Structure prediction request, 250 residues.
Amino acid sequence: MTRKSLAAALITLLLTSALFATTAFAADSGEVILTIQQVFTATGSPAPPSEAFTYRLTPEQVANPMPSGSGTDGYTVTVTGTVDADIGPLTFTQVGLFIYQLSCTTNEAAGYTIDRQVYTIEVHVMSDLTIIIVYKSNGEKAASLSFEHAYAGATETDKPTATPTVSQPPGDPTKPTHPPKPSDPGKPNDTPYPGKPGDPVYPGKPGPVTGDEAQPGLYAAMIGIAAVTALGSVIYLLAGKRRKKGAQPS
Prediction:
C-alpha cells in the first residue's frame, strides 16, 4: 500500500468516526484554525445584561504551538451573541500529536445557563496532512466546538429583597420617650420623664396604679386628727375617774 493510499484510508476511517476537521498543508509546515460555534438564547425578562462569554484554550504540553497573544495560562477569547469565532492560527513545523483543551470560563450569573462542556482537541500532524479530532467531556467524539448558552431571566429568589424601613419617633433616639404629664400637655414627648409614685410611667410599680397615692398630705392630716381625738378621749376619761374618787365620803 502506497503512502497516498494509506493516508486516504486513514482519512476515510476518521471521517466515519465523527471527524471534526481535516486540513492539508505542505510537508513540515502548516496552520490550523479552530472555530467556536456559540449559540445564545434569551427567553426571560428583563433583557440579559450581557451576551458575551469567554473561552480559554490550554495546551497539554507547554511546547505546543499556540495562537498569537497567548499567556502562561493559555489563550482567551470573548465571543458575543450567536456567532462563530476563530482561534488561531496555530502554526506547526513538525509532525506529531498535539493535544489541547477548550472550555468556557465565564462566571455563573443569575438567570444564565452556561454550557460547561470541556473539549479535548487532538491535532495529528503528519508529513502531508493534518487531522483534528475533538472529544467531549464524556469521551464521545464531537463534530464541532459548539457551546449553547441561555438566559431565562432572574427568578424571585435572585431578585434583591427590599429592607423594611422602621420609622423613628421625633427627638433623640438614644433617650427614652414618655408621654407628657396630663398637667403639662405642652411637654415634648422626647423629654425624659423619671416619674413618681402614682404616675402611670413610674418604673417598677407592681400592677395597676390607682389615684389613692396622689394625695399623701390629706391622709397625714386625717391620721393626725384621729390621733388628737383619741388622746382627748383618754384624758377626759382619766379626769372623770379622778372626780368620782374625790367625791366619795371619808
